[in-house]
Design a protein that fits this description.
530 residues, three-stranded mixed beta sheet, 19 helices
Length: 530
Amino acid sequence: MTYQQQIGGAHQLIGGQPTWGGIDAEAVARMQLQNRFRTGLDIARYTAAIMRRDMAAYDADPAAYTQSLGCWHGFIGQQKMIAIKKHFGTTQGRYLYLSGWMVAALRSQFGPLPDQSMHEKTSVPALIEELYTFLRQADARELGLLFRDLDRAREAGNEVEAQRISHAIDTHQTHVVPIIADIDAGFGNAEATYLLARKMIEAGACALQIENQVSDEKQCGHQDGKVTVPHEDFLAKVRACRYAFLELGVEDGIIVTRTDSLGAGLTKQIAYSREPGDLGDQYNAFLDCEPVEATDIGSGDVLIAREGRLLRPKRLPSNLFQFREGTGADRCVLDCITSLQNGADLLWIETEKPHIEQIASMVDRIRAVVPNAKLVYNNSPSFNWTLNFRQQVYDAWTEAGQDVSGYDRARLMSADYDGTPLADEADERIRTFQKDASARAGIFHHLITLPTYHTAALSTDTLARDYFGEAGMLGYVKEVQRREIREGIACVKHQNMSGSDIGDDHKDYFAGEAALKAGGAHNTMNQFAA
């Protein structure tokens, strides 16, 4: 409905209630517009439709890839989306990412934890709910500012301006965007995965990212010691997520299946196999085995039979089984194809470096079986992007016969090379990485898992250095407040950002002339009006 239709509907409702004479129809319409999404499921359904449209757009044109940044607090997510609307005028193609790493490190009641699924699993849906609370508040704030502008235009008799603002209200774009939420390895068995998935969807998540590691041995994707599970175990959890979506009426919910097989050299168990060549047998074929004779069988040995031979898989003292060296890419491809054939919508291949051809070499094989396969890719801060890309340029130049005698490959991170032709070419490759990888390697969505963790640390370090040093108060004023004012950062008016003006509007609706408002002449936020 348009703004005027919303007012008309409220007026009709109020008119049918003889005791509601003190209720103003336009105030009701404003509050309704400021609370567009009543439940998390409303958000999940709305954002799932956005992602599905974006996925179709990418299938038609790989230049239409999407992006997100990981956010560990509702305020961070809110300010990100406000900034996107300010700089680009639209939230199209921009999402939020909820990182299990940041939940563990920043949101656990145990204090900072490594990314090993030791944090409270309830903290994940709690953060989803918090993020959407802040995004909905950003909507209410922005619309509240438009309502105030509309009132001023009316008071001034400026009908043209009033019509312009009414149109802006009618076409207002919400800050509510899809969240891709990390459910780790499911925090337990398939039933535990289902229960957590339900909570995450009820909080508003339209996309769940689940990985093929063992829940109780889970490691960060960029650390050592990762242990995968057989496909059937993983697919049970994928189905659990789908059942949760369907039960809650989010029929187009998105499941992102992540494979850690490229860096995982261990499995906790041998897969169950019914016949040669089935999925379990394919998984077991990657095991590091040695042939044995009946006379060589030791106490407690685990054996498998293949092609008439007895094989002993290499078992470690941890009771884990080891895969053969060099099988990671093959296992990734099998994981991805199997996931897509069993309900997954998007893939995530965790790599050890940002190398387009490495990713593409696997995606090409996957797309030979599933042509529309698409990836979510972690543009991870765990990668040393500068060193990786400088070394990639160094290697490319070497292969092309260009002179690299002025460069030491092992020292390319050094500032000594800043501004050199090699460094400039590397920076250009970094700049175009997302566009190039989406065109070549099937990456639909690019995210940075932990960016706001690092930006919070960096900005706090800068402020601490200056404020507690010689700059004193100028360290805050020059590097923070003055920039906020001149760059139009919304939270420079922090009282407005926290909802003070929204509260004043409500006081006016509820008490009229008797309202005691905070936004009067003596509010120091008025100093920022210019």
